[in-house]
Amino acid sequence: PGFRFHPTDEELLTFYLHRKVEHKPLAIEVITQLDIYKFDPWELPASSTGCGEQASYFFCPRDRKYRNSSRPNRVTSGGFWKATGTDRVVHSAKPGHKCIGLKKSLVFYKGRAARPVKTDWMMHEFRM
User: Which helix or strand (DSSP H or E) is residue 87 part of?
Assistant: First the structure.
């Protein structure tokens, strides 16, 4: 016996992220609060409240690249996370199917922007 944490995109947004933003308690703490950009991706799974899955989940505030800019800073000590494609809208399964948030896919590149090396590390960022 054990427990498996495999939430849908809707569950991540409505139950976990929404409650976190509203400062409401969660029944159990399955998602760790961590500044993921202080780590390279291969260092992260050990820091997660993992449940034996390939995926890890973290709450992380978005830092800005520049003080008066809306551009996020996604640089780590060994590389950077680069957005791929466009943001995807996450809809509610309830009647009306309203937009409840956005999902962005990112890929990790080793090195700096001048000579990046693409890796197989992928991250999905959810925001409301």
Answer: strand 79-91
